[in-house]
Amino acid sequence: MRIAVRLTFLLLLLSLTSRAQLTVQGRVYGGRNQEPLPFANVFLSGTTKGTVTDETGAFKLTDVPSGKFDLIVSFVGFTTLKTTVQTGDPKTYRFVLRPLENQLNAVTVNARRPRGPDWDRQIALFIENFIGTSQNAAQCKLLNEEVLSFSQRGDTLTARAQEPLLIDNQALGYRLKFQLDKFVYDYAQYRVTYEGNPVFELLTPRNSREAQRWHDNRQRAYFGSTMHFGRALYRRELAREGFAFQRVIERRNQRGELTMVGLPGDTTIEARSLANRKKLIPLPMANYNIILDSVRSTPLVPVVLFTDLIQVTYTREQEPFAFRRARRPTTVGNPALFQRSLLRMLEPDLTLEPNGQFWPARDFRSEGYWAWELVADDLPWDYDPYEPLDNQ
């Protein structure tokens, strides 16, 4: 039985990380006469797969990962198109972009808009709450901050970008092109919400030492991340991968304050203390049916559905001091500084992809540690932590 289980795990892992020869191809047209659009940008959101159309408007993304992704098509002066594709489908796509009304005037006005007196404070707050304040964030640089504009109403700061944001991440070895759809910072609730579509471009290391550093940093960013959690949940291997989870409910105390209460798990797992490796700490562990719909889920398409909140504890890394200093506690229990995050459903249910994506991602929100790790700690969805250094 153990051999069979191990074989099943390896087959699932290979299906996730192998470089299947999948392609996404089609043509892009625009304008009233629907003429071919050369040099339009086409990419799978959140991956390293991007290209531009040729002189005939044709594009072809090769060696793409298997799964469901948002395909983004954009061209200056036209509305950006976003559509969901299943990369295994043998389709040839035809996209028609609509021209933006008064685009020239809009760009001219935005380009000449002077920076307000609060610009330095606003851009600093944006970088802190978009790129982040982690160790990786210290090695990131926003290359074109001039494309940003800010507006503030009451306790809410909103940011917009008239072009994709360009971010060099020297910690992980990527350049991100991030099409920002939404950024809202709520001062009163200390909450940030942003949406957009990034594409990752691999930077070229200057030497083997830098290549090794990027490889190691990517692995550190991966383990314990939402991507790692999603992939382990897909395989029903959470405990094996170092995760514990439990249900959390919100209640109001006698003073009317909202508090969180962690419910007992269906079982208990023991995690080794990060401060004292000889000490074992018991942690509550809920059953998978707390987070997955046992009726509608299939082995290939798990359906995520839970009530209240789910607290996720990653037992193999501690919360960094920078996180503990910057964020007030939003989790329950005291599991010896293990990384703790909360998941909150925003819509009735969502599905889980083999690569760890919760689909659609905007239908749930993370709090706690995962909410602190921002763009600087993001990895592309086609990242494989077990891939040899030479292939990364």
Number of helices: 7
Spans of 5+ residues with little confidence (pLDDT < 50)? 1-19, 104-112
Largest sheet, strands/sense/barrel: 6 strands, antiparallel
Strand content: 35-45%
Secondary-structure-based class equals alpha+beta
Describe the fold and architecture:
The protein has 392 residues and is α+β, with helices and mostly antiparallel strands. It folds into three domains: 19-101, Carboxypeptidase-like, regulatory domain (Immunoglobulin-like, Sandwich), CATH 2.60.40; 114-202; 224-382, no CATH class. The chain has seven helices and 24 strands. The protein has helices spanning 2-17, 103-112, 119-130, 208-222, 226-234, 321-326, 369-372; strands at residues 22-30, 35-36, 41-44, 50-52, 58-64, 68-74, 81-86, 92-97, 140-142, 148-153, 156-161, 165-169, 174-186, 191-202, 243-252, 258-262, 267-272, 280-285, 303-304, 309-318, 338-345, 350-352, 358-359, 364-368. The strands form six sheets. Strands 9, 10, 11, 12, 13 and 14 form a six-stranded antiparallel beta sheet that branches. A hairpin with a 5-residue loop joins strand 22 (350-352) and strand 23.
